[in-house]
Design a protein that fits this description.
Elements lengths: L8 E4 L8 H11 L3 E6 L4 H8 L6 E5 L5 H15 L4 E4 L20 H29 L2 E6 L13 H21 L4 E8 L9 H7 L10 H11 L11 E4 L14
Parallel strand pairs: 1-2, 1-4, 2-3, 4-5, 5-6, 6-7
Amino acid sequence: MNPSLQGQTAIVTGAGSATGIGFAIARQLFRTGAFVAIGATTERIHESARQIDPSGERVFPFVADLTQEARANEVVGTIAKRTGRIDILVNNAGMAQNGRQPGNTTIEKISYADWQRQLAMTVDTAFLMTRAVLPIMKNQKYGRIVNVTSVTGPLVSNAGSGAYGAAKGAMDGLMRAVAIEHGLDGITINGIAPGWVQTGSSLPEELVAATYTPLGRAGRPEEIAAAVAFLASNEASYITGQILVVDGGNILQETKRAAV
């Protein structure tokens, strides 16, 4: 299946790293025909945009801290004014910012400031961007919102992942509320829950852990992007409020063994 997004406008947050999930999602949506606005908190987003679309005609980069309410509203307003519509929002921003992951420690040791920052980066950005696009999507009677959540928090956890897992769990709660409140407006909202995915920020121990999945390897950002593109398409019109786990079958196992 290769769903067409010709003529649609998409926003992808957290797309600054060329080896990351957000970049792969933006590239996939671009390849299927969408005009794609991509955001990050650093100027490297401009280089990411050039890599996806050297012509600069269908990729629009923006630098913004989307934990700020006014900035999130401004970004959405600018994009809507430029293209006349917003069809797709992919909430991918979160976990880390400028190479730092706030709250990456145990609940006993985490500072309240780091706890708040992790929730702001991950769930507040999703809330603010979702709230900003909803009036536009309601007016169109069409919209697709996809949250890049995680298996960590909603389904499993690790020591030191309390703040991150809480934020991802909150994204799922937000998703279900929006699904109920806006189904009659032609808007669907779903989540993709990746497991181990090999990106430029993957730690060696994470890649080792990925060899214990039934598929014996970490996922690729492009595999997450393909799932997002499906949920962002018209072909997924009867799916809403759901989480699609993309983890190589890892959470199925009680006993985990390295692939042989």
